Amino acid sequence: MLTPLQRMHERYGVGVLYRMGPMPMVHLFGPDANRAVLLDREGLFSARKPWMGSWPHLPNGLLLRDGEEHKHQRKIMHEAFKRAALRNYAERMNPMIAAGIAAWGEGDGKRLAFQSYKELTLDIAASIFVARRSVPRRIA
Length: 140
Known about the structure:
By secondary structure, the chain is mainly alpha-helical. It has helices spanning 4-12, 31-39, 49-54, 67-77, 83-103, 113-129; strands at 15-20, 23-28. A two-stranded antiparallel sheet has the order 1-2.
């Protein structure tokens, strides 16, 4: 049995434009269509514009930049995402994750999962990327 997306692909081809509520959606199928979007040699696509109406909170994030600005910022960030750097992050994060999760067992056992994950993630990010020492907190 075909999924709705597979049926659209069969009926309309490699590009399908439709509406989901108030938001227009585009699905591109196959490696050639995906390559066209990801390389965007003609500058036809924007990562920024779709998010500004619904999520204007991080307007200058790397993933929300387009064109030459995105390429320039990506080059600056490249070192931080090489294999050796990622391995170092993981080695530093693992003990923080273990300590953070162990701290969740303290108290009455009631905990909001989203809040707990969010705080642990932000503590780790601050420690790894801003060189702040992190101490697991008890969540009220």
